[in-house]
Prior knowledge:
There is one protein chain. Strands 1, 2, 3, 4, 5, 6, 7, 8, 9 and 10 form a ten-stranded antiparallel sheet that branches. The protein is globular. Residues about 1-20 have low confidence and may be disordered. Strand 9 (about 120-130) and strand 10 (about 135-145) form a beta hairpin. The protein is about 15% helix and about 55% strand. The chain has one domain (about 20-145): Porin. The protein is mostly beta strands and about 150 residues long.
Amino acid sequence: MLRYVLAIIGVMCLARESFADMVIKCGGSEGRAYFLEGGAVPAGTGGWADDRISKGQIIFLLKGQKPQLLIGDTVGMGDVESDGAKLIVLHATADTILVLTVYSTVVETYEFRIRPDGKGEAVWTSVKATGLVDKGSVMRAECELTG
Length: 147
């Protein structure tokens, strides 16, 4: 009997892990940013501007219970945790995932929303206090569930 119960629990655990595995891939982003004067932003030139990362990529991976966020731009692709960020999944439902990344001088939020057809979008925010170009931005990218 114990063997039977352990077998059922094992199958349930395997099913849960395979259900949780996912890959959300997003393309380039566009939105608006507010640039604060100082650093590389001369006096009188700060303010609101259109912002775009046309060759960018955002990839959210979930393998079992381990989330991973990869960010790509013209320089290359990088894992946010390898780049020094703390990655926290704040909320997850069948169609929405809300993620927070915290670096020493940058805070970002990502909301991934996926429709039943596997298509969707990400809305993300970023506040940077690096001293070189300090800004806050709101961006949007089209996404697709691929795994």
